[in-house]
Amino acid sequence: MSNTELNTPNAGGAEAAQAGASDERALRQGRSLVVAVDGPSGSGKSSVSKEVARRLGLAFLDTGAMYRSVAWHCLNGRINLANAAAVEAAARTINMEQTMVPDAELFKVNGINVTDAIREPKISEAVSAVATNLGARAELVRRQRELIDAHGRRIVVEGRDITTVVAPDAEARLILTASEEARLRRRGLQLGGTQTAEQLAEQVLARDAKDSTVVEFHQAADGVYTVDSSDLDFAQTVDAVIAVVRQAVHAGPA
Ligand SMILES: Nc1ncnc2c1ncn2[C@@H]1O[C@H](COP(=O)(O)OP(=O)(O)OP(=O)(O)O)[C@@H](O)[C@H]1O
Ligand SMILES: Nc1ccn([C@H]2C[C@H](O)[C@@H](COP(=O)(O)O)O2)c(=O)n1
Whole-angstrom Cα distance, residue 94 to residue 143? Predict the structure, then answer.
């Protein structure tokens, strides 16, 4: 299957809405349903994926939080992020726990609650050192696959390499994207206007540029849908993603 672009919500009308609701019920009851979501920073992957998981009754895995947790551990333990072997060793040895339900966000590293700490700008600025470490990536991919299986393969997983590396066999795979302008604006609002334009550009665009040296998350691979949320509000984006999930499930394996 070639790349598929779907950037408008489900067609309107009462009939379409009814069909949508009944399809959504079917998805809630199905067996394996892995929804893989990739995309650039600030495109809405995490917030939209959480809401999709809620609506479809699925578990939720934020893989970026795992990269952030390794970065936090290195900074906290004075492990030099430029020392590739030490970063890989950290990824292999730390204990990471995360609630995988969309309504309760809690991340722990070696028993320490890092839920808020991993979202701090200093982690956003440092995390690419983990993301571009191929040994650390291999270990985190291994852990992510284990978590998907442990949740009975009924899960929404979001990150940068989920559609291509972690779960290329997912029932629904999509890239969630948005214009640079929309992503910078959303991240600025999310951080309560605390960051300058330069800081936002560093945390969003420069980070994407570094991360995309090791993974492709701007262009959809074959069989992967694209949802462009630049001109959609949050609720419309969630609807558009659920429409893609329905479409992908009906279409079957790519
Ligand atoms: N369609 C949308 N319209 C407006 N705001 C949105 C939309 N989608 C997401 N947002 C908001 O944009 C902000 C960034 O979203 P989110 O953190 O989910 O992005 P992300 O892709 O996971 O980013 P990162 O990869 O950097 O963690 C959040 O405040 C979220 O509520
Ligand atoms: N599957 C993934 C998930 C995340 N990353 C990298 C890219 C980011 O710089 C960092 C944090 O992700 P975020 O919380 O901003 O989504 O982790 C990756 O390379 N692969």
Answer: 12
Tens of pLDDT, residue by residue over 25-74, are 777 776 899 999 999 999 999 999 999 999 999 999 999 999 999 999 99
For the segment 154-173, what is each residue's pLDDT rounded down to a tens digit?
A: 999 999 999 999 999 999 99
CATH of the domain at 235: 3.40.50.300
Which residues are annotated as part of the binding site for ATP? Answer: 39-47
| 232 C-beta closer than 6 A to ligand 1 | yes
Per DSSP, the three-state class of 206 is: helix
- Into how many domains does the chain fold? 1
Ligand 2 center to residue 242 CA distance, Å?
A: 23
From the alpha carbon of 229, which atom of ligand 1 is closest? 1
Residue 93 domain boundaries: 4-251
Q: Where are the alpha helices (DSSP H) in the chain?
A: 14-29, 45-56, 63-76, 84-93, 121-126, 128-131, 134-150, 180-190, 197-201, 207-211, 234-251
Atom of ligand 2 nearest to the CA of 132: 19
**Residue 8 reports pLDDT greater than 60:** no
Give the ipTM of the model, two decimals please: 0.98
223, 219, 134, 145: CA torsion to nearest 10: -30
pTM: 0.91
Name the residue of 46, 50, 180 to mutate for ligand 1: max ligand atoms within 8 A of Cβ.
46
Which ligand approaches the C-alpha of residue 160 most closely?
2
